[in-house]
TrEMBL record, chain A:
This is Pyruvate dehydrogenase E1 component subunit alpha. Pfam families: E1_dh. Heterodimer of an alpha and a beta chain. GO terms for biological process: branched-chain amino acid catabolic process. One of its GO terms (molecular function) is pyruvate dehydrogenase (acetyl-transferring) activity. The keyword Oxidoreductase applies. It is an enzyme of class 1 (oxidoreductase). Its cofactor is thiamine diphosphate. It comes from Sutcliffiella cohnii. Residues 39-325 form the Dehydrogenase E1 component domain.
From TrEMBL, chain B:
Coiled coil: none annotated. Its cofactor is thiamine diphosphate. It comes from Sutcliffiella cohnii. Residues 10-185 form the Transketolase-like pyrimidine-binding domain. Keywords: Oxidoreductase, Thiamine pyrophosphate. InterPro entries: THDP-binding, Transketo_C/PFOR_II, Transketolase-like_Pyr-bd, Transketolase_C. The keyword Oxidoreductase applies. It holds the Pfam family Transketolase_C. This is Alpha-ketoacid dehydrogenase subunit beta.
Length: 354, 331
């Protein structure tokens, strides 16, 4: 079965285009834009880990190593599409236009973090595993019924494919021919459980076969493969050709979250070897091969990204303290009497009334 | 000039069909979803004829996939639709519990109102119809405990239609419990037109002076029968149908128990951590000094709702209610 789902690449590890059918679609501007986004989300990720270590945000889920999967897929979307991320996909959400300040607020325990900018259809991060897949199907199906060409993309990891909601989501999407792209980032580990203990199948892409939906296995560190295959899947969706399951094979260098230690469950030498396949190194090689690379551009991008992230951190840290009333305000459209009573009691205690 | 409201004599299940039909006509965004609700018209025929009338796009047979279609309904709801889902029996809702618990109920709070999930989940529930195993659960407390979802339970045809329409129009997720035992047990005049019974309002079904009996769903007719039996013994019972289990009508409870000073709470759900215990807390908070006797509870037992060989022993009966009323009277 593995042979039926070979890992598709557009660019090899050395940054050479090996699938010439896409070559003329890669302009300097496109490649540079990819590079810029990759640098930005890596800087954000590293900075966020450091903020967590300093106690300036709470537990954080890093994605270093998975940048090409997130940037490439997000840039393939149209502005009116829907995005349903998991908790590790803020690289994708910020590429799609989520506010960096709000993403940081999320990791700092604030509900504002789940609020996307106006007109950006980004669902809050899925915390339970795979439950966001049916949501993406429903939102996509609603677009189809209204006769738009908007689609949904939903992100999830390899472990999520063991959950019932993965299978129920794929099945319903198949029956309804919903315009949805199931974007799997296979990083080989569900926290500490390696993929061999997660599933007997060698690929995730083959799971689509049972639902008679299109699937493809791609190199998730090859941003061109991610971008072009996601774009194709979205085009299929818009043309009423149904859902697609994309398995992007990638690697997360770090921990599942800042609360666990990957040295306990993963050979670090093996993890370091993966740096040779790093998504950012790869596009740098490509840009060098094309003569489109310069150290000064890289420094300029890194500086701009760091400034943008620092600005977001400053905004996050200057953000007003959580107003306890907000905890009660949004449970229902109008608070019930019980919630109203509880709010008033808390406020009166906070005001020091007896 | 007097205008007369056109009515029909309907059973509860017919009133529900009528309510769904009314809302399919009135609101193009209303979509019915569930297993076997199309050609088959649902296992209890609640959607009988609606697919023929409104089409397959409005009355959708879904795959057998409670988590999947409740999740998909959430996705449709955030994107402009108002899905009304039928779960075949409340006992089959558990696969979808995660979707209800972790998404539908807390979506508005998580996103500070940016997204919300205005779905209605209809679920036949309760014992007393000789149903197979698992079909008779009365686990409303699992849902009233969860912030962000309203829980409704009508006991008669008129309320069923009015509350169903109110639920569909409500911007928050609603669990709409339909006591199977009441589906065809009584008929009532039900207006043809659209009307609502307000969510959160209970109803005094029988006025009385000595004892308040508080019930909902299929226990309301049993409580009324007990009140009738007790009237022969010159005990005057007031019977309250809660109708909404979250948020409960605090005022109607307080008003009645302050008048009578004695209360019996009746429900078929298990006793521990039940909605009845919340009613007790409301009485404690609002009316402690009015009480002439400790509140009595007549409930199902803390055992899984049994297979129907035990059903008559499991369910509260008129007799058990009469005993509880005598206990508070003789305290």
């Amino acid at each position: 079965m593995e042979k039926k789902y070979p890992i598709q690449q557009v660019m090899d590890e050395q940054g050479n285009i090996i699938n010439s059918s896409y070559e003329d679609q890669i302009s300097e501007q496109l490649a540079i834009n990819f590079y810029k986004h990759l640098i930005k989300i890596r800087i954000f990720d590293r900075k966020a880990i450091s903020l967590q270590r300093q106690g300036r945000i709470g537990t954080y889920a890093p994605y270093e190593g998975q940048e090409a999967s997130q940037v490439g897929s997000a840039l393939a979307l149209q502005p009116n599409d829907w995005m349903f991320p998991s908790y590790r996909d803020h690289g994708a959400t910020m590429t799609f236009g989520h506010s960096l300040r709000n993403i940081l607020l999320f990791w700092n325990g604030r509900n504002e973090g789940c609020v996307p900018p106006p007109n950006k259809k980004i669902f809050p991060p899925g915390i339970p595993i795979a439950t966001q897949l049916p949501h993406a199907v429903g939102a996509a199906y609603a677009e189809k019924r209204r006769g738009t060409t908007n689609a949904s993309i939903v992100y999830f990891g390899d472990g999520a494919t063991s959950e019932g909601d993965f299978h129920e989501g794929l099945n319903i999407a198949s029956v309804w021919n919903a315009p949805v792209v199931f974007f799997n980032q296979n990083n080989s580990y569900a926290i500490s459980v390696p993929i061999e203990k997660q599933m007997k199948t060698k690929t995730i892409a083959q799971k689509a076969l049972a639902y008679d939906i299109h699937s493809v296995r791609i190199d998730g560190n090859d941003i061109f493969a991610v971008y072009f295959y996601t774009k194709q899947a979205l085009e299929r969706a818009r043309n009423n050709e149904g859902p697609t399951l994309i398995e992007a094979v990638t690697w997360r260098y770090g921990a599942h979250t800042t609360a666990d230690d990957p040295t306990k469950y993963r050979n670090q030498a093996e993890s370091e070897l993966k740096r040779e396949r790093d998504p950012i190194t790869r596009i740098e090689r490509y840009l060098q091969n094309k003569g489109w690379y310069s150290d000064s551009t890289k420094i300029e991008f890194e500086k701009a990204a760091a400034e943008e992230v620092d600005q977001a951190i400053a905004e996050m840290e200057a953000f007003p303290k959580a107003n306890p009333e907000d905890m009660f305000r949004y449970v229902f459209e109008k608070p019930t009497w019980g919630i109203e009573d509880q709010k008033n009691e808390l406020l009166s205690v906070l005001r020091g009334e007896s | 000039m007097q205008t007369s409201v056109k009515t029909k004599t309907l059973t509860m299940i017919q009133a529900i069909t009528n309510g769904l039909d009314t809302m399919l006509e009135q609101d193009a965004n209303v979509v019915l979803m569930g297993e076997d609700i199309g050609v088959n018209g649902g296992v209890f025929r609640a959607t009988d004829g609606l697919q023929v009338k409104h089409g397959e796009e409005r009355v959708m047979d879904t795959p057998l996939s409670e988590a999947g279609f409740v999740g998909a309904a959430i996705g449709m709801a955030i994107n402009g639709y108002k899905p009304v889902i039928e779960i075949q029996f409340l006992g089959f809702i558990y696969p979808a519990y995660e979707q209800i618990m972790t998404h539908a109920s807390r979506l508005r709070a998580r996103t500070m109102g940016h997204f919300h999930a205005p779905i209605v989940i209809r679920a036949p529930y309760g014992a007393g119809v000789r149903a197979p195993e698992i079909h008779s659960d009365s686990t409303e407390a699992l849902f009233t405990h969860m912030p962000g979802i309203k829980v409704i339970c009508p006991s008669n045809p008129y309320d069923a239609k009015g509350l169903l329409i109110a639920s569909i129009e409500d911007p928050d997720p609603v669990l709409f419990l339909e006591p199977m035992r009441c589906y065809r047990s009584t008929k009532q005049e039900v207006p043809d037109e659209k009307y609502v019974v307000n969510i959160g309002e209970g109803k005094v079904c029988r006025e009385g002076e000595d004892v308040t009996i508080i019930a909902w769903g299929a226990m309301v007719p049993i409580a009324l029968a007990a009140a009738k039996a007790l009237a022969n013994e010159e005990v005057s019972c007031e019977v309250i149908d809660l109708r909404t289990l979250y948020p409960i009508d605090r005022d109607i409870i307080a008003q009645s128990v302050q008048k009578t000073g004695r209360t019996v709470i009746v429900h078929e759900a298990h006793a521990t951590t039940s909605v009845g215990n919340d009613v007790l807390a409301i009485i404690n908070d609002t009316s402690f000094l009015f009480q002439k006797a400790p509140v009595q509870r007549v409930t199902g037992f803390d055992v899984p709702v049994p297979y129907f060989g035990f059903e008559d022993d499991y369910l509260p009966t008129t007799n058990r209610i009469v005993h509880a009323v005598q206990k508070v009277m003789n305290y």
